[in-house]
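Ticket opened by: R.M.
Priority: normal
Category: complex prediction / small molecule

The reporter submitted a protein together with 5U1 and asked that the result be attached to this ticket for the collaborator who will pick it up next week. Submitted input follows.
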Amino acid sequence: MDTASARAAKLRELLARYDYEYYVLDAPSVPDAEYDRLFRELQELERAHPSLVVASSPTQRVGGAVSGAFAAVRHASPMLSLNNAFADEEVLAFDHRVRERLAEEGLPVEELRYSAELKYDGVAVSLRYEHGVLVQAATRGDGATGEDVTANIRTVRAIPLRLAGIAPALLEVRGEVLMYRREFERLNERQREAGEREFVNPRNAAAGSLRQLDPAITASRPLRFFAYGLGESAGAALPATHSALLDWLARIGLPVGPERTVAEGPQELLAFHRRMQSLRPTLAYDIDGVVYKVECRDWYDAIGFVARAPRFALAHKFPAEEALTELLDIEVQVGRTGKLTPVARLRPVFVGGVTVTNATLHNEDEIARKDLLIGDTVVVRRAGDVIPEVVRALPERRGEPPPRRAFEMPRTCPVCGSSAVREEGEADWRCVGGLYCAAQRKQALLHFAQRRAMDIEGLGEKLVDQLVDTGLVRTPADLYRLDIATLAGLERMGEKSAANLVEAIRRSRRTSFARFLFGLGIRHVGEEVARVLAEHYRDTAALMREDWPALAAAKANIQKDNARRRARGEAPEPVPLEGIGPEIVASLQRFLAEPHNREVIAALQASGIEFVRDAAPGEALAGRSFVVTGTLPTLSREQAHELIRRHGGTVASSVSRKTDFVVAGEAAGSKLGRARELGIAVIDEAALLTMTGEGRSRRSPDEPDHHSSGSDPA
Ligand code: 5U1
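Result attached by the on-call engineer:
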């Protein structure tokens, strides 16, 4: 029995440590399977020797009994709320008031410091520890009385059932229960698969999970916790400052947010707010602002309270990431490949720090899935540097004006009137007008001229509109016939800009075959595919001679033979144009079978296009995979990609375990967060340049991006 008792104690200690590493430090030291094995061993020991079961055992987190409803809990000291500030001036006024109070109370104003931390977007709870053991947990409720969620909180593995190292008679810990964004998404996936209700956001999911009548359900939800303060306490020597209190809470086993600082005055508080706002998209969890508190805890009573909010603290909120607005209309845009994209026209709304007036709705299925009607009140979301999206409608508002009407995808192109078709198995409708369609012509020209293709500096959207609308340009080949006098006659075009543009067009004639192929805008032929094709065919004549059905058949045969060879343990034969799948082959065949396209290619060649090889790739980054995110100080995204490729590296658009480096710039978004989660090396532009040996940047920071990218929703 003694050995069983000792083993149980050891297992409890180990499991508590692993919970702490996993949930608090985010650094598990053992695989999940090992955790599960120890957990089962403890369960079996406790089953064999019921007297070994103690309330603080990790096995007791999942309460078996279903409680009827939540009992009311009167908080020993009220759970306060915070006064909010949105503007910098309000922070200055807060600091001013604090200083005034300190002076009135005869306290040393010159010693004033603030502690700043994150404002977690979760559910406030109070945890009551008696003699170091968690005995009660309650929600905030109305601040005076909350709900008893002890059984549920006991299942949250981030919350210690017993404090580490100390056992004060009483300690009420205040903090926030929340859910990490990725875990929230996984939960919603599970909910979807099970046909259950999805949660709107992580806070909602955390609140819903905490208020489950069956603690076993709470136990299955990935809840986290961050402590930020205290309620009542007795028998503990508490630190004198708030920042030291947070350190102390961390030492006794409570999770405390890592992002915090001590500030000398309001300017440093504002700097913290700005820093956290840019960090916000990279955090694993939602925050809605930062919280400032006077450092010296002894001064709290003297500074006092207004109603239920302390005067020694302030919540400095971030602009909301979600807002309600009206879906005024749904318009249809035509992309380069004829894709018709429905776009929401919104009543202007300030969200995520910018005014949003429109948002892509992607395709008609998306509109149906979100059940959107024109006239609906909708939730618009813009988080970090992510493009704004219409999240959902509020059908409960449909009784109110204006009248609603359903959107229907037009059966003809809104620009050229050609028919629109939706092919079997595709989500998109497309205009069949091709280059007859002015919208497609404009987009095709912008695509052709962009930096990554023919790089014609100065050929932007406004100019392309004029060139197409006046009939001066129908195809990319027409660009090479433009002269200074014609261009100078256009709106907003002087002699000088016309001459510059003609020169840029002339210069663009010397290009690589890969850029030229990419610039043609063939469906499914992105830069990478264009590179493979250029490497294989070398010039347009060879490409145009290709027998595409024969090539597709040959590829399929070799692939079949290779499968047999592999089964026999033999080496496979090389497949021609590896990586160019049947969809791309079919698209090339379609494009090159079109006489009009062959004419454009011939006319371009006749205008003096000359292919030179792109610089041979270096070796410095060979075998390394990169993802670039955020705004780099001097390189544009395309320049960074080009640099990486030129030195033998590969570029991916999303972060995975295969990524070697994430190059992060300012306002880096969720990719940076993902990199941190996966432990992938994050470097800045300077490090990238050093790795490639290119030292200095290729574009000065204040030189603007010279022309529109002609990006295409298609
Ligand atoms: N981080 C943090 N959140 N939060 C919320 N600190 C903090 N403090 C609070 C609240 C309601 O209240 C105390 C200042 C009383």
